[in-house]
Glutamine--fructose-6-phosphate aminotransferase [isomerizing] (Marinobacter nitratireducens), 610 residues
Amino acid sequence: MCGIVGAVSERDVQGILLEGLRRLEYRGYDSAGMAVIDGDHQVQRARELGKVAALSDAIDANPLDGQLGIAHTRWATHGEPSQLNAHPHMSGDRLAIVHNGIIENYQDLREELKADGFTFTSQTDTEVVAHLIEKNYRAVGDLYDAVKAAITRLRGAYALAVIHADEPDHMVVCREGSPLVVGVGIGENFIASDQLALLPVTDRFMFLEEGDIADIRKEKVSIHDREGTPVERKITRFEHGADSVDKGEYRHFMLKEIYEQPRVVKATMEGRLTDSSVLEQALGTDAADLLENVRHVQIIACGTSYHAGMVARYWIEELAGVPCSVEVASEYRYRKHVIQPDTLFLCISQSGETADTLAALRQAKEAGFRAALAICNVPGSSLVRESDLVIMTQAGPEIGVASTKAFTTQLTALLIFTLALARHNGLAPEKEAEIVKAIHLVPGQVNDVLALDGEIEELSKAFMDKNHSLFLGRGSQFPVAMEGALKLKEISYIHAEAYPAGELKHGPLALVDSEMPVVTVAPNNDLVEKLKSNLEEVRARGGELFVFADKEAGVKSEEGIHVMQIPSVHEITAPIVYTVPLQLLSYHVAVLKGTDVDQPRNLAKSVTVE
Ligand code: G6P
């Protein structure tokens, strides 16, 4: 998804902007560009199709010296990926703009601006905004006022940063529906769509709120809210060390993040559990009152976070006895729903900026839910700021587009939440203690699974030349199978489908032959005997099986069945542990296939547009 960086300083900003763009690469993009205002008060611009490295080469050849600049990585929405469509966009040769988001009424504005004599050089919605601001600038002669007037005409989502050569000492930025953060320096200030971009230059951030417009100068940041009232936004310090965004000894961020799971799962438990119970107050001072009155839970999320929600449904209904519905945000937000009384609206999101999830939350706040709870990994994100109650996961920055540690920490947080809810709904203290003890064992069990990495790498060779695969699971392992299939398709580009194992004979069995590897997760629970029958169904059709099974489950390797024995785990915590071998499997298949593991084609880390 698009990324924005901007800087105003005493020093040349091109190095800061380039490094910022590199740190935004993980969001996914197809082109990159930069504009600065030079010492002669001219806008200098470079734009390149492809990676930030290409832009860096272009800038090495023709440096963009200047102390005020903006830069952008683009993920095409309107118009193909090309140099002409790359940002920054200009109106004339004095005004430059970068934009993240989508302007829905850009066609009408484009016609209007063409009639006013503006010439368009790209197919983007962003260029419309550039001309609209320039039109206002000609009328009012002040960049801040021009931006303020222009945005009243925009419908859609945007984070914007604008510079003008006639006002070379500041930039004007604003946000509506897309994230934007101000990085506070000493004698210099910065902006970005994600604080990670600015970690080399500051650890102090102000998060702009919806409708804010800000004037960013070297010595001063002034912010006004939507009504035009001057506002202060709190400065917060970035909590994780700047080096947490380096790959360290690992070949890819994804592998590093898989290996971080024992630590970050533990961090997500910390302060929230005693040896044998959940510390409900740790979920927030209002948590007890709220949980006492919840009669139904509606979970909303996208992608991997949706799979976490699907696992949680099994837990919530089993342990708390509270009905739970789960839906992807992009569907939920566009249909009519019946809201049960006392329903808790629960959003799960790694980034806290996913457009569909935020839109669903905003609707929900109007719709009469009891309260909105967020499970999120990014402090200060829109989701966190707009929810009534928040449980932060402690995964730290996740850079690999394919989500790994965010998922297992979401599951950890969701299980803790479930136990707190269950306590208000009659869960016996002994059962709570049994599960809390099982949660404490998870980091060690994940470590045990990581020790199987070499064997899983060996297994992965069988997938290299395959085009399709099937993932099976039963009960709470069905969403784990879905997550395993998502990982494989995201990074290895092998078609992977997940089915509840019991549905096998209602269709997918027709596809099974020696070219269709079938992956199954089989913890030792009540369903394992049924699962074994499903495995037989596959074997009888010549299908090759890859089974991740509890060592007590009685599933043995033989002709056509490769069994990877997983240490015994509690049935409730099994989804967390069984996710890890599937992550490793996908990772190794992708490495063997030579794909771009951390930035798979066509995907973005944070989907901040619809
Ligand atoms: C994108 C990412 C996924 C992520 C999904 C939801 O598709 O590539 O990894 O699961 O968005 O993101 P969120 O930040 O809301 O969890």
